Amino acid sequence: MKIGNVLMTAALVILIPVGLASAYATWSSRPPVEADTEERVRPAKVAAAAVPEAPAKVTYERPMDQLIFDVIERPRGGSDLFAEQPFRVDVQLDANGQHVRLVEVDLDRDGANDERWTVLDGVTREVSEADDGRYDVVTSWSADGWRPLGVQKRTGTPVKRQRPTALIDGLVLGWRGRSLPEGEKLDLVPALPIGVAVFQDEGFDTVNRAHVDLDRDGRIDQIWEITPDEIRRRVSPDDDGTHPQIFRREGRDWVSVDGEGASP
Ligand SMILES: [Ca+2]
Ligand SMILES: [Ca+2]
């Protein structure tokens, strides 16, 4: 063996273990994977804790107030916005359709509005204590709820209350043109003494039928048939399961189709 080869072999014998040891030392000095993950998580936790708490939620005296204030916040106008509720709410937007300007509330759906809300730099509410469409008591909304502002000279046009026809009409007509994918809604407002159910039968895109049980005795007093062109109501004057009287809706009135029977 030449002396050169001997030296080369000796060098390799020494250098290879040193190189391996050095590589191991470099690898083993890296932080463990878990420690690396912890380092990344920790700042995120700090950032999350720094988010300010949400302001305290306003508690509304009436659930209806919550619904209406939601509409004021995310404006949408229209008649009878909450058709499934025992109250009726009509909302008018401003000319641009950007903000709610006027809200009218008929608490008992008797055709006479009980409240009129005006939205302009805050919310002012006029109340008709007599529920006759004429407003006397005035309140305004503050963080604590409705604050009395006083009593005003009664304004507005007196309205003749209607019961229960207006209530039923409002409930059923509120479903006109709406789709009911589940096919039926059997008791629109369980809290009411009148049972109202709406249906969307096969072949219809929207609600096409309604049943009204005036006294909740299980026998249907009115069967409504709703098409895009016409609304008909078959009435059972004796609540005996037969519906011989037929009325057609014209404007806000009901007209007898066969000339018999008084308009309900
Ligand atoms: Ca009313
Ligand atoms: Ca009945």
Structure description:
This protein has about 260 residues and is of the alpha+beta class. The chain folds into 3 domains: about 5-50; about 65-155, no CATH class; about 165-255, no CATH class. Helix content is about 25%, strand content about 30%. The protein is built from 4 helices and 13 strands. The strands form 2 sheets. Strands 7-8-9-10-11-12-13 form a 7-stranded antiparallel beta sheet, with helices on one face. Strands 1-2-3-4-5-6 form a 6-stranded antiparallel beta sheet, covered by helices on one side. β4 and β5 (about 135-140) form a beta hairpin.
Q: How are the elements arranged and paired?
A:
Elements: H1 3-28, H2 33-49, H3 63-73, E1 88-93, E2 100-106, E3 115-119, E4 123-127, E5 135-142, E6 145-155, H4 165-173, E7 184-185, E8 195-199, E9 209-213, E10 222-226, E11 231-235, E12 245-250, E13 253-256
Antiparallel strand pairs: 1-2, 2-3, 3-4, 4-5, 5-6, 7-8, 8-9, 9-10, 10-11, 11-12, 12-13
The chain binds calcium ion (2 copies).
Residues 106-108, 110, 112, 114, 131 line the site of one calcium ion.
Task: Give a short synopsis of this structure.
This protein has four helices and 13 strands.
